[in-house]
Specification:
CATH superfamily of one domain: Winged helix-like DNA-binding domain superfamily/Winged helix DNA-binding domain
Oligomer: single chain
CATH topology of one domain: Arc Repressor Mutant, subunit A
Distance between the termini: 57 Å
Helix content: 55-70%
CATH architecture of one domain: Orthogonal Bundle
Order of helices and strands: HHHHEEH
Shape: elongated
Length: 124
């Protein structure tokens, strides 16, 4: 996936209405009228959202008699997920280092003498 296509996918996913449309399409193909039913926006507004999703490759539309059902194309989502997964390892390692640092700092504090001058005793 090229950087520009990845940007188009993330741009399309940035809108909550478009994410909701994708969620509905995950259950099966729907027409614009069916997609617009739960939203408080017009059918033309849903059509504009579908154009953005189509441009990102997340939705395809076909013609069935007079209806034009929309279909979820999941491959770009998988590619975006793979791109994000590369950073998961980075964050996991960063959190592991932070956990190690916090554990060592907490260990240092338990061995510090209290303000009264007597060292703390570790529990057996």
């Amino acid at each position: 996936m090229t950087a520009d296509h990845l940007s188009a996918v993330f741009g399309a996913l940035a809108d909550p209405t478009r994410r909701a449309i994708l969620a509905r399409l995950a259950d099966g193909d729907l027409t614009v009228a069916e997609l617009s039913a739960p939203f408080s926006v017009s059918q033309p507004a849903i059509s504009r959202h579908l154009k953005v999703l189509e441009g990102a490759g997340l939705v395809s539309r076909s013609r069935r008699a007079t209806a034009r059902p929309s279909h979820l194309e999941a491959e770009p989502l998988q590619e975006a997920t793979a791109w994000l997964a590369r950073y998961q390892e980075f964050w996991d390692e960063s959190h592991d280092r932070l956990d190690t640092l916090l554990a060592s700092l907490q260990g240092d504090q338990t061995n510090q003498p209290p303000r009264g001058g007597q060292p703390r005793r570790n529990a057996p």
